[in-house]
Queue: 2 jobs
Job 1
Amino acid sequence: MPDNDALCPQVHLNDSVVCQQVARFLQETESDLRTRGLAVAVVGPEGELIAFGAHARCPPLPRQLAQRKAWSALRFRRPTATLAQEVSAGTLRLAVFNDPKLLAMPGGEPVIVEGLAIGGVGISGLPPALDAELAARFVQRLIA
């Protein structure tokens, strides 16, 4: 009889470690004028919010967008910057999915381990290219 773990791999984000990483990331980025004012959200494999944080100066909208970027990156298993390009080119229409949480803006990255999408990261509040860069960097911290 095969081992269940072999049939259903159990790769998960460790919620407490992710929360610690979010707190550390916020401390590191708050002292830099280029990155001050951001929000970061991490969702688990089913899209559930497992960690969230924002700088004190972060307004409400980026806080919401970070969560939607994380969700979108997880659902499509690719960076939301790629989604934004596909929407702009007309090769992807988010409306057909009938999901108001989907968002095609740079700053979302899927967390993929051993070919499985186990989560998503969203960063918002900064210029789009910087949101995307920091989201990719944060994912590397999680899977390193």
Job 2
Amino acid sequence: MSNHATVAEGRIHEFVTQSGADTIEVGRKLAGLLKPPQLLLLRGELGTGKTTLVKGIAQALDAADPDEVTSPTFTLVHEYEGTGDGKPVRLFHLDVYRIEGERQLETLGLDELLTGNSLVLVEWGEKFKSLVKRATGEIVITSAGGDSRKIRVSLKDA
């Protein structure tokens, strides 16, 4: 189930999922809405399905099978090579939960990651003002009870 609305600052897409498989499917749909270069914040409590959503995005871009996509909690950055609209796309999945300050964040080389053909998805990015300021949108996942999730995607107009 999805609902699309246009707001002054961009576009909003809302989805409700009932399972991890549904969340992967929403990720596949979202891949078609994401046009590089983009930096998106992935927001949601632990276990709400942020990485599960990335599995669907990676699969839709032919960048990785869902079982190859894991949380970058300890490695901080995972990179996948794929295609979107027939063009090469580099998908970066970051988890900055363990990063403690802006200076440490700078060591990740975000400027080098965010090139013309990159989609950069950052878990816990809302912790850093610099990321919030640079983000071209955000994906917020909230639990709706049991395995149900509400997924709200806000994309700024380019």
